[in-house]
Amino acid sequence: MTTLHVETGSANTAILGVGAYRASRLVPNADIVDAIDSSDEWIQQRSGIRTRRFADESETVVSMSVGAARVAVERAGIDMRQIDCVIVATVSHLMQTPSAATAIAHELGTDQAAAFDISAACAGFCHGVALANDMVRGGSARYALVIGVEKLSDITNPRDRGTAFIFADGAGAVVVGPSETPGIGPVVWGSDGEHYDHIRTPDWREVLASDEPHMPCLEMKGNEVFRWASFAMAKVAQQALDRAGVTADELDCFIPHQANNRITDAMARSMRLPPTVRIARDIIDAGNTSAASVPMALDRMMEEGDARSGDVALLIAFGAGLSYAAQVVVIP
Ligand code: COA
Question: Which residue is closest in CA terms to ligand 1's atom 47?
Answer without folding.
Answer: 259
